[in-house]
Design brief:
321 residues; alpha/beta; D-Maltodextrin-Binding Protein, domain 2; ten-stranded mixed β-sheet; 43% helix; 2 domains; 11 helices
């Protein structure tokens, strides 16, 4: 009887192996709720080819922008949790949106499995110095307070990272300054340069060319440490705004239910890239920092962002249009 059981088990083993093939067995895809050419798109197209030798199959980068990131996130939410679809989410699509949209069909904190934060980028607070002749955050605060309601600040739209960053500063310091939303980073930068909205907090990679040309003056970065790209520019905390931090980030998530061994394998391969000199140099060139942290640390970042932005959205009455 014992021998018959062993024979039956041996005959069944190949069938089990066929039913549970090793992962991955075919190409994967990363859905991006971002446009081609964005910072997150640059990250994806840098990282995914480097994963192919280890995983044995390529990864297709699928851009699904629109509706503040909702279109791409929903596509990932509705994908099968089989290890062949991942989401490269960002601070807006997987943090801010939970605060400003009332009708999301998914729970950003509960319906995705965090794998790793990949890259962080600071925002930078700038001014058009021809219109707002200040050299520091303290001087800017005094300038705005002396002209309540008279100055404008620009953003890439309601709920954009730069909108929420400036609203956080505005409400933390009690400033009366008006919001002018634009369609995208290029338009808001031109609004600052023209003087229509001369105060602008934007992603460092987007604003660096204007800073280098002297069209905008950098007053402070919004990360907790200074940026290597602007080593002489203080952080907001150094500039006198206590405990102020906002960062743009991107990170890899999987649909809820994606098997743990698959998530662990993907995480392990991403971590191997953390000290890759080429990756670090390419990301630093666009103002970013490679992180590759643990799933728990990434989940804590998402929960913290959602809580912070929900509180601000409630106080400032910010809702998506």
């Amino acid at each position: 009887m014992r021998r018959r059981s062993l024979v039956a088990a041996a005959l069944a083993a190949p069938a089990i192996a066929r039913a549970q093939p090793s992962w991955p067995a075919r190409p994967m895809r990363w859905i991006l709720p971002d446009t081609p050419g964005s910072g997150n798109d640059t990250t994806a197209r840098l990282v995914t080819p480097l994963l192919e030798p280890a995983l044995g199959h390529p990864t297709v980068v699928e851009n699904r922008p629109g509706a503040g990131g909702r279109i791409g996130v929903e596509a990932a939410f509705r994908a099968a949790p089989d290890g062949y679809t991942f989401l490269l989410g960002n601070a807006g699509s997987n943090g801010i949106n939970a605060a400003i949209y009332r009708d999301l069909p998914y729970d950003l904190a509960g319906d995705f499995e965090p794998i790793s934060l990949l890259v962080i980028n600071p925002n930078v607070l700038t001014v058009n110095a021809r219109v707002v002749p200040v050299n520091s955050v303290i001087e800017l605060v005094a300038y705005i307070r002396a002209r309540p309601g008279q100055l404008n600040y620009g953003s890439g739209g309601v709920g954009a990272s730069n909108h929420m960053t400036t609203e956080l500063l505005k409400h933390q310091l009690g400033l009366d300054i008006q919001h002018v939303p634009y369609r995208g980073a290029q338009a808001m930068a031109q609004g600052a340069i023209s003087g229509d909205a001369p105060v602008l907090a934007g992603n460092l990679v987007n604003l660096m060319p204007f800073i280098q040309r002297g069209e905008l003056r950098a007053l402070a970065v919004t990360s907790r440490s200074r940026s290597p790209m602007l080593p002489d520019v203080p952080t907001m905390i150094e500039a006198g705004v206590p405990d102020f931090e906002t960062i743009a980030w991107n990170g890899l998530l999987a649909p809820k239910g994606t098997p743990a061994p698959i998530r662990a394998r993907m995480h392990a391969e991403l971590v191997k890239l953390r000290d890759n000199a080429m990756v670090r140099e390419r990301i630093a060139a666009i103002g970013g920092e490679v992180v590759m942290n643990t799933p728990d640390e990434f989940a804590a970042r998402i929960r913290g962002d959602i809580a912070k932005w929900k509180q601000l959205a409630e106080v400032a009455n910010i809702r998506a249009e």
